[in-house]
Amino acid sequence: MALGNIDAVSLAVFLVLFAIFAFFGFWASRWRRGDLSRIDEWGLGGRKLGWLLVWFLMGADLYTAYTFIAVPSAMLTVGSLYFFAVPYVAWAFGIALLTMPRLWTVSRNKGYVTAADFVKDRFDSRWLAIAIALTGVVAELPYIALQIVGMQAVLAPMIAGVTGVVSKSVSDIALIIAFIVLAAFTFTSGLRGAALTGVMKDILIWITVLAVIIIVPLSYGGFATAFSNALHNSGTVNLELNHAKGSILYGYLSPKLIPAYFSLSLGSAFALYLYPHAINGSLSSEDKEKLKLGTSLLPIYGVGLALLALFGVLIYAVPAALNSVLKLGAGTFVVPSLIAYTMPDWFIGLAYLAIFIGGLVPAAIMAIGVANLLVRNVIKEFKQLQPRTEANLAKIISTVFKFLALGFVFLVPASYAIQLQLLGGILITQTLPAIFLGLYTNKLNGKATLAGWAIGIISSLALVIEANAKFGVIKTSLYATPVGPLYIALLALGINLVVSVIGSAIAYGMGWRPSQKVKAEEITKEL
C-alpha cells in the first residue's frame, strides 16, 4: 500500500535523525554536570535551565505528538469549535506568568520539588498533598498514552509507504524499541535529557510547520481553494469519518457553540499549568526572571498552533491526501497524509521524525513529573527515604510509568485513551484552589480545601457520566446548561470553590487560623 512520496529515503532520514536524538539524550548526563543521585538534580535538571531552554522545554510540552495529530484532526472532523486551542494557549501563558514565578520562588526557598510539596506546607495537610499528587498521576497516564497514539499515526503510514503493507506488529516493535531508548536516557540523564532533545524536537517541528504552511498553499491554490473545496465536500467527510449527516462549519462558529468555545478555552487554560509536567518544567528554571522571560515568549508557539490547526482545512486543497485520510478512516492521519502527498521524500522523514519525537520528549517530562509526585508526596509520606534512595526510586518509577502507558495503548483501543484524557483534564482542574489560590492566600483551610477537591472530583465524574449517558462511553467533555454547553471542568471547579471558601469561612469562625509554615515573603521574593 503505497502512501504518497514515502520511500526508503524517508525511512533513512527518519532513522538517522532518531540516532542523533538518542545521542543527545544520553550525552545530556554530561551537560552541566550535577549529582544525579539527588532528585532535584535528576528531576529538575538541577534548576539550571536558562530562559531559552525553558522556552524550548515548555514548548515541547505544548507541541506534543498528539497535539500535532489531534488539533488538525478535530478541525477536519468537528470544525471551527476546535480552534479554541488558539485562545486557550494564549490565556494559559498569562496564567503561567501569574503563578509559576511565585511557585518557583517558594520552591527554591523551601527546597520543594513538586507543587504538592508546597501544598503540604501551605495548608499543613499531608492528606491534601497526597490527593493533589494522586490527581496529577491519574491525569498524566492517559496524557502519555495519547503521545503514543500520535506516534502511531506517523509510524503506520511510514511502514506502509516503505513496505507496501500495514503492519501493526512492526509498528508495535518500533514503539517498544523507541521507548527502551527513551527510558534508558531518561534514567541516566533525567530532565537534562528531555531539555536537550526538546531543543532538537522543537526545531524540527517548526521547520515542518512553516514548510507545509508556506509550500502547500503556494503549490495547491492556497486557502481560497481549500475553503472552497471544504464548502462542497465537508458533508462527505463528515459522513465518512463521523458517520453523521450534514456539513461541517470551518469559516465561522455557530452561535450555539460560543459558550462551549469560551468555556473550553478558559478551562483548558486553567488546566495546562496544573499538570505535573508543566509545573516540573517551570521549576527547572535557573532563576525567576529567566522563567518569566521564557514563559513570556511562549505565545510564539500559540501562533504555530494556529497554523497547525489550519492543516485540518488545508488538506481540502490536496484531493489525494484527503482521499487517503478517508480511505484510512481516521482524522488522525490528516497531517501525515498532507505531508506524504505534498513534500519530497527526504522531508517526509524529517517531518515524521519531528512528530514521533514530539511524543517521546513530552512522555519523558511527564514520567519524570509523575515519579517526583509518587516518591515525594505519596511514598515518602509513609516511609522515610534517604536522598539517594529517593532519586533511584524516582528513576525506577519513571521507567515503569512509561511502559505502563505503552501497555495501556497496546491493550485498549486508542479511543479509550482519548476519552480518559478528556476526563483527566477535568480532574486536574480540581487542584486549582490548592495550588494557584494557595500561592496568593493562606486563608483557605486545609480540610475545607480537601473537601472542595473531593466534591469537585465527585461532581466531575457525575457530570461526565450524565453528559455521556446516551453514548455509553466518554465522547464529550461538555454539559448542557440553560446558557448552552459548558466545559465540565469549569462547572465542577465552581462547586469546588464554593465548598472550599464556605468551609474555610466556617473553620475561621470556629477558631482556625492559617499555618505559618510558608511565609508571604518566601513566595514573593528570593531570600
From TrEMBL:
Q: A cellular component term (GO) from this record?
A: plasma membrane
High-level lineage = Archaea, Thermoproteota, Thermoprotei, Sulfolobales, Sulfolobaceae
The record's subcellular locations are: Membrane
Q: What is the protein's species of origin?
A: Metallosphaera tengchongensis
PANTHER family membership: MONOCARBOXYLIC ACID PERMEASE (PTHR48086:SF8), SODIUM/PROLINE SYMPORTER-RELATED (PTHR48086)
Q: Which family does it belong to?
A: Belongs to the sodium:solute symporter (SSF) (TC 2.A.21) family.
Quote the protein name from its UniProt record.
Answer: Sodium:solute symporter
Q: Which UniProt keywords apply?
A: Membrane, Transmembrane, Transmembrane helix, Transport
Main localization is membrane
